[in-house]
Fold:
Amino acid sequence: MSMFLHQRSLHNAFSNPFAAPPPSSANSKRPISILTPMTLLVLLCLIMVVGVFSPWVNIPHGIFSVSKPAVSKWNSYTLDQALSFVAKNGTVIVCIVSQPYLPFLNNWLISITRQNRQDMVLVIAEDYASLYKVNERWPGHAVLIPPVLDAESAHKFGSKGFFNFTARRPSHLLKILELGYSVMYNDVDMVWLGDPLLQLEGNHDVYFTDDMIPIKPLNHSHALPPPGKKGHPYICSCMIFLRPTDGAKLVLRKWIEELQNQPWSRTQKSNDQPAFNWALMKTAKEVDLYLLPQAAFPTGGLYFKNKTWVKETKGKHVIIHNNYIVGFEKKIKRFRDYGLWLVDDHADESPLGRI
Structure:
């Protein structure tokens, strides 16, 4: 997205009213001090004018121009403002990131840009570094919902910080639904090979993907799968589409409740996904749920480990999720091995550029 920053000119704002008279012959040889009371008053007025007008810039977006605050003003940028800026036809694409995930955010954005959906993306930043970095490069596309988390601990899978990071997901999504928007949520360790919005058949409340490796028939059921060994299904909480319906809101409220009932502990290092599955199970009779096709949305444990299946379903893949592997470096290496780490050679395609 190209951006042209316009700032009001301050030229001649105070020139004539405060012009000093020419020196007389009697005092022409005396030293002239530039720090006169009048000069100081002019400087003070200039500082006040610049302070009022310089934080505001004009950002073209499509055929509309919307005033957006500069970096120093992003702290007060609200979710409501951000959604109204990025949403298209009442729908927004959302991810949640802290600073360590920025390289994955950029990789994900490149793949979305190739589907021409980047303008719909809203980055929910979990720290000020991410908020400022994204809005510096791509104004208006990041918002922070307080409180701020510890960015360092949030990326360590299985840690309390990681639990706190992922546990905020349903509350963020619920806020979006309550403001009247449909939302597609993605983790940023994903790559789009197609447009997932075109896969949303019907008008269901909640769409989701299976996290299981066993191969399903191409015409498999779209109902919630039966419970597994742990008493609940294994639905992935990393790729979800929700409409602003009572049913979808019910699922998110139940998800929040289940997280409160299953807090992190040193013996039970949980994350948000089991709670999401319990929420789906407990609301299934009241909510219109839809399981997305496995061929289009395979789990990483299938896509990266079953070359035969990948070949048989070639052309059907829409989003590839780099899960079933832990660690940033391991994920990056796997993406590189499969030609999916796009930031090395295609950073210029991202709205953020090379970060």
